Amino acid sequence: MLLTLDGEGAIYMQIYRSLKKQILAGHVKEGQKLPASRVLAQHLGVSRNVVLLAYDQLKSEGFVIGQVGAGTRVAEHLSTTDMQTDVPSNKPRSGTVSDFKLTHQASLALAHWQARSRPWSTAGTPLIHDFRYGDIEVDSRSECIWRRLSGRLFTDSVYQYGHPQGDRTLREIIAGYVKTGRGCNCSPEQVCIVNGSQQALDLIARLFISPGSRVMLEEPGYLGARALFQAAGAEVIPVPVDSEGIEVSRLTDVGIGNGVIYVTPSHQFPTGSILSLSRRLALLEWAERHDSFIVEDDYDGEFRYQGRPIPALQGLDSSGRTIYVGTFSKVLFPALRIGYVILPENLVEPFVGLRWLSDRHSVTHQQRVLAAFISDGHYERHLRRMRKRYEARRATLITALTDAFGDAIELHGTNAGLHLLVWFRDVSLLPLESLLIESARTAGVGVYPVSPLYQTPPERLGLLFGYGGISVERIAPGIARLRQVLAQLK
Q1: How far, in Å, CA of 259 to CA of 315, rounded?
Q2: Which long-range contacts (CB under 8 A, 24 or more apart) does 43-48 make?
Q3: Domains plus CATH for the chain?
Q4: Residue 172 pLDDT grade (very low, low, confident, very high; cuts 50, 70, 90)
Q5: Parallel, antiparallel, or unpaired for β 409-412 and 462-466?
Q6: CA distances for 7 relative to 41, 85, 111, 130, 355, angstroms
Q7: Rounded distance, CA 437 to CA 486, Å?
Q8: What is the pLDDT of residues 326-342, one digit of tens each?
């Protein structure tokens, strides 16, 4: 059931109004059972008590009835007058065109967007200590260099159409960079420039997925990939992840050819585990044996703080089964929608054809600026500066969490990336998840649950802490506030 909250007043009243509109409009039929309060609370990211308050209000007005053991159902024999009250008309002012109905893909996309936008909303209390994962710092020195290069390279030629595969110079530079920096094996002809990694996944889905196709994803894993593949019509099969990455032995038969396995082997999202060498080799062998393809999302492989950088899975592939996805958004700034895909040679032409149908090409001018930024050495210097800053925040966050919670938590994914995962050992905290998130936001602290990244919810409370976008001075006070919030709830 899709509910849209209007953001006005108490949350339980927003849920009540949304459900009432669904009932009055006939979208929820008489006698139909409403979702269990616990299920709806988890879906909306609120506490169960909030949902129960909304259900009680509906009961008091006669819209629903509740029976022990039978759940909450829409009341029968609602009067015609009731059914016409407060129902906004969405029909055209003239004509006989029927109400617009969303496609299956659009409906899934809407549901995922609404679920994502709620916890990331900045409405209400300002988040002074926001541990939102995915955020990064924009370096002022690199910003000045970027502006200078942008002015110098803004010539008449940038007004013309570009090639859908991307600027040749940039593709040559990327091919050289991933060879030395990530251990990939490719030529410039195998590199395709895209508008960020999300577009890369969208084009990969168009390349492989038809309704009923099966795609295997890490469990837990990146919600953006799961949502996209589901919207494309795929059956998404979760594969467990442990300390060595995806459990290759748990992969299932994906059918006849063109199966897809999505992995983040260099820094698994969100657990931070690294796919071991033995499993990398086993995964490549499995893909070849089952005529399947591996999508390797190397979303933050540049940021590693302990040990040597982990080479890409693509560099081990001798049978052309790996599609490598990289992005510059997590290194430079998110608004730079430039990513890249390294494809097996036989997939380049169909991928480029899909890109041409999609949006022709990425912005020509920005591609040239990025090429100059890398070739002039600014990119490597930028990486060194940012690694040093993020390393300081990472160390501060680990110390603050350890001092605040001690043995009550487990830390995962601490050696790389821009976030870490915290598991709370006390299983009784799990029912407090929604209330904890809401209470922390009221206290000005933004923390984010790991549960939405699971298809089967975890059995204990897990929180993701991003440190890319928060200043080092705000980390320890934010954790101290969170500790106070949790103590009050317990």
Answers
A1: 21
A2: 43/115, 44/3, 44/5, 44/15, 44/118, 45/115, 45/118, 45/119, 45/434, 45/437, 45/449, 46/11, 46/15, 46/434, 46/438, 47/434, 47/435, 47/438, 48/431, 48/434
A3: 1-87 (1.10.10.10), 117-133+381-489 (3.90.1150.10), 140-376 (3.40.640.10)
A4: very high
A5: unpaired
A6: 16, 21, 17, 21, 38
A7: 10
A8: 999 888 988 888 999 99
